[in-house]
Automatic annotation (TrEMBL):
This is cellulase. One of its GO terms (biological process) is cellulose catabolic process. GO terms for molecular function: cellulase activity. Gene3D superfamilies: 1.50.10.10. It comes from Erythranthe guttata.
């Protein structure tokens, strides 16, 4: 997806902005698994859950190191993508996009 202005990885750029276009969906953003240009939902869900729990458990440490906002944005990037992969506002989930 489109990287934020405050992206601190200078060599990284926007990528896969057309993901999901064949389904008329915006599936940009999210994280690749192991550098192979595939976004696996279950590993990404696990990673976002584990990272979220680390913020719950070690919030003060993140804050003291000045990384609390950064880690929250990291989690938001991953979870926003996951919310795009299914009809999350419907009463019944009848589709999930996965790789």
């Amino acid at each position: 997806g489109r990287l934020q202005e405050d992206n601190n990885v200078s060599w990284r750029g926007d990528s896969c902005l057309e993901d999901g276009s064949s389904l008329s969906e915006d599936l940009s953003d999210g994280y690749y698994d192991a550098g192979d240009a595939i976004k696996f939902n279950f590993p990404q869900s696990f990673a976002m859950t584990l990272l979220s729990w680390s913020v719950v458990e070690y919030n003060a440490k993140y804050e003291a190191s000045g990384e609390l906002n950064h880690v929250k944005e990291t989690i938001k990037w991953g979870t926003d993508y996951l919310l795009k992969t299914f009809n999350n506002s419907a009463h019944t989930i009848d589709r999930v996009v996965t790789q």
